[in-house]
Write a structure and sequence with these properties.
The protein is mostly helical. It has helices at residues 3-27, 32-53, 68-89, 92-115, 118-142, 151-168, 170-177, 187-211, 214-231; strands at residues 58-61, 64-67. Helix 1 (3-27) packs antiparallel against helix 2 (32-53), helix 2 (32-53) runs antiparallel to helix 8 (187-211) and helix 3 (68-89) packs antiparallel against helix 4.
C-alpha cells in the first residue's frame, strides 16, 4: 500500500478508537472529564491523519519539508496522554507541569532536528533526547510515588505508563534511521512505521484506559475518603 492509503488507515483507526471513550462519556457522566481526555487523544489524531491523507499539513522550512500536521497532533495529544497518567497518579500541578514541559521540549526538539542540518540537527536531537530521559524519569520514578493506594489504579497506571514509555522510545530510533538521520529508511517506510506506532500508542492507550474504568472509581473513593477525613 502507498503512503496515502496508510494515512487513511491511520485516520480510520483513530476514529474507531475514539468511539469507546465517547460512549463512556455519555454512559458514565461522573467520570466525563477522564473520557473527554481519552476521546480527544484519538479524535485529534484522526483529524490530523485526515489532513495528511488529503495532502495538506506539510510546509517547507529551510528547504526541508516538515509534516506540520503530525507535529501539531503530537504537540496536542501527547500532553493529554501525560495528563491522564498524571490524573491516575494524582501527581499534582507541579509534577504535571514538569511532565508537560519535558514533553513539549521533546516535540520542539524533534521539529528542530527535522528542519535543521548537520551539527545543528544533532544538537536539537540531543536536547530532545535529554528531555525524553527527564520525562521517562518522571513517569517511572516520580509519579508512581503518588499513585492512589488502590490496586486497580496502580495496575491501570502501570500498564499505560509502560506502553507509553516503550513505544515513545521507538520514535527516536525511527528518526535516526530516517532521512533526517542515517537515511536507512525510505520515506514511505518511515511513514508506515510512524502510522503503526501512532496507532498502537494512542488507540492502545485509550483501549487500556477505557478497559480499566474501575481505576476511576478507585480514584473517586480515594478523593471521597480524603474529603471525609478533612471533614472530620
Amino acid at each position: 500500500m502507498n503512503v496515502t492509503v496508510w494515512l487513511w488507515v491511520g485516520a480510520v483507526g483513530m476514529a474507531l478508537g475514539t468511539l469507546p471513550p465517547l460512549w463512556r462519556l455519555v454512559s458514565d457522566p461522573e467520570n466525563r472529564e477522564y473520557y473527554a481526555i481519552l476521546a480527544a487523544i484519538t479524535g485529534i489524531a484522526a483529524v490530523a491523519y485526515v489532513v495528511m491523507a488529503l495532502g495538506f499539513g506539510n510546509v517547507r522550512v529551510g528547504g526541508e519539508e516538515l509534516v506540520l500536521a503530525r507535529y501539531v497532533d503530537w504537540l496536542l495529544t501527547t500532553p493529554l496522554m501525560v495528563l491522564y497518567l498524571g490524573l491516575l497518579g494524582r501527581c499534582g500541578t507541579r509534577v504535571y507541569a514538569a511532565l508537560v514541559a519535558a514533553d513539549v521540549v521533546v516535540i520542539a526538539g524533534g521539529v528542530a532536528a527535522d528542519v535543521l542540518d548537520g551539527a545543528a540537527a544533532a544538537v536539537a536531537f540531543g536536547v530532545a533526547s535529554l528531555a525524553f530521559v527527564v520525562l521517562v524519569y518522571l513517569l517511572i520514578v516520580v509519579v508512581p510515588r503518588r499513585v492512589a493506594l488502590h490496586e486497580e489504579s496502580v495496575v491501570t497506571f502501570t500498564k499505560l505508563r509502560n506502553l507509553t514509555v516503550v513505544l515513545w522510545s521507538l520514535y527516536p530510533a525511527v528518526w535516526l534511521l530516517s532521512g533526517s538521520g542515517f537515511g536507512l529508511l525510505l520515506p514511505a517506510t518511515e511513514n508506515v512505521v510512524v502510522v503503526y506506532l501512532d496507532f498502537i500508542s494512542k488507540v492502545g492507550f485509550v483501549a487500556i484506559a477505557v478497559n480499566g474504568t474501575r481505576s476511576l472509581d478507585a480514584l473517586d473513593s480515594v478523593r471521597l475518603d480524603g474529603e471525609a477525613s478533612r471533614a472530620d
